């Protein structure tokens, strides 16, 4: 998929392979189709390798049934789902020891999924806002915390709009805190560099020298974290 983003002030072609195997090509305004194709052809081996790795990570994952005993992730730790159907109780989710317990007045996977989605969104709002403040505190270009909203996304962890608003995927709260901090830092660096230029990556290197290892860790678990 080709994305032309004039607001990012891109100066060169940038190719990304998303956790689901989708290939995104970011191009500066005015780029020709021939230039895009030439750039993709130069990196076809790299693209093929990363697409294959993304697909391999998905092979063993099955859709959830939302029944007791299934595995759930939260802040990098694994929990078991416990489902309780009680027509006299309100729909809710809570952590109890090594379990995430979901109580619903209705039986079936859909009510359980709705409760879990709401629970993850609320936990993400709390955790990600706290981590945003912590990560931003060490960045000299941040004078005021940017607004942040939650939005479930199919293949992205976050984004930063030209106006400086950060959008985060609530599923990110399933990941370890180190991975959460990396994604937040990535988006905060876009407030200083609205592209994926060498200056952007130098900023990442200064603030988190080991970010590439952390990103790989997040990529390796992405399909499970995105799993529905």
Shape label: globular
Q: What are the low-pLDDT stretches, counting only 5+ consecutive residues below 50?
A: none
Bin the strand percentage.
Answer: 15-25%
Question: In DSSP terms, counting alpha (H) and pi (I) runs of 4 or more, how many helices?
Answer: 6
CATH superfamily of the largest domain: Metalloproteases ("zincins"), catalytic domain
The CATH architecture of the largest domain would be 2-Layer Sandwich
* H/E series: EEEHHEEEEHEEEHHH
Widest sheet, order of strands: 4-5-7-6
Backbone CA Rg: 20 Å
* Fraction of residues in helix: 40-55%
Could you name the CATH topology of the largest domain? Zincin-like
Oligomer: single chain
Account of the protein in words:
The longest helix is centred in the middle third of the chain and has 28 residues, at 109-136. A hairpin with a 5-residue loop joins strand 9 (158-160) and strand 10. The chain has helices at 33-42, 44-58, 109-136, 177-189, 198-207, 211-226, and strands spanning 2-4, 14-17, 23-27, 71-74, 77-85, 92-96, 99-104, 148-150, 158-160, 166-168. It has a 4-stranded mixed sheet with strand order 4-5-7-6, with helices on one face. It has a 3-stranded mixed sheet with strand order 1-3-2. 40% of the residues lie in helices and 20% in strands. The chain starts with a strand and ends with a helix. It is built from 6 helices and 10 strands; from the N terminus they run E-E-E-H-H-E-E-E-E-H-E-E-E-H-H-H. The chain folds into 2 domains: 1-60, no CATH class; 61-226, Zincin-like, CATH 3.30.2010.
